[in-house]
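[Automated response] Your request has been received and processed.

Submitted sequence:
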Amino acid sequence: MSRIAVRVTGAFDGRAMIPGGALVLCDGGRIAGVLPGGAPAPDGWPVDEFPGGTVLPGLIDCHVHLCGDSRSGALDRLAGYTDDELSGVIEAALRAQLAAGVTTVRDLGDRRGAVLDWRARAADSSLPAIVASGPPITTPGGHCWHMGGEAGDIPALRAEVRNRAERGADIVKVMASGGLMTAGTDVLASQYTPDQLRAVVEAAHSIGLPVTVHAHALPAVLQAVDAGADGIEHCSCLTEDGVDLAAALLERLAANRVTVCPTLGRNVTGPLPPRVAELQRRTGLTWEDRLVMVGRMHRAGVVIVSGVDAGVSDAKPHGLLRCAVRDLVAAGVPAADALASATSVAAAACGLADRKGWLRDGYDADLAVVGGDPGADIGALADVRAVYLRGTRAA
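Generated structure:
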């Protein structure tokens, strides 16, 4: 790993914009200094210049499915892949993420540990880092059952948690409600009893693993909070009449520091997936309703991170994190907070707060350089000029 200095007109340090830009020194894969933009580089340090650009900590997508090929029916096809084919899908997904400025992903559902296995044998340091859950725990025949994480009774649930720890998972993912991408499951219904969900959380916490819960249905969201889950994915709070997000629930989410990933961001150029369209017809839910809900969460002090649910369909391709951040701004979240949701706050949710998500001395030199000023125009995230992984230019 060599030394490099990156000079930019603007800089976001993980929490706020740095006036006057920055000269970021990278040495041995770590940030060795963040100097004022006009400072001279130390002798012998080559400098990459980006006039008019802004440097940020490498972005973190907190909800991806690397086994998903970003086409309609992606998850349904998983069982048909050979091991080599699935490795190719994973690598293609990581390259698409990297091109979008994403240097770390949190994979929340693979098939039978494929991402965990890929990570264990990978020697390619030119791809984003992976935090992974392995297959999600779900009921027999439940949402994403074909990924291989089915478990019904409490002993089986505890065994699934132990299995993930033994295979090196960083987090446990459990499906508390049905999902849009699995036929025969009900998005508006809970899949587990409160005691079953609590057993998963207690088993994971006893061995030091956090738990994040897939929950669309309001009862499932409430169960996740009651069980002491660390995070909730989607957190849609859906009922037959649309979203029901009471003030009391907002207060509990904020007070318990539950990290919510609302999985915003979508490709709006194509038609809605049929199951999404059916849900909208059934509940009256609109995208604008979701943005209003997320805006309320932010104002109530709920911890929000950005993740797309990338890879599950052509509406949710890999490399679309910028759109999730943009949607937060559209929901009324200040740009600095929206950017933090994909940098410093995301790093904390991934258990990486001491290494990633900030422009700080000693942190991993994962950087994304974009054209323009995302603090003033969040659309600048779409103009990725360069990406550095551990101080080496990767894109």
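Summary generated for your ticket: DSSP finds eleven helices and 17 strands in the chain. The two ends are 16 Å apart (CA to CA).
If you did not submit this request, please reply to this message.
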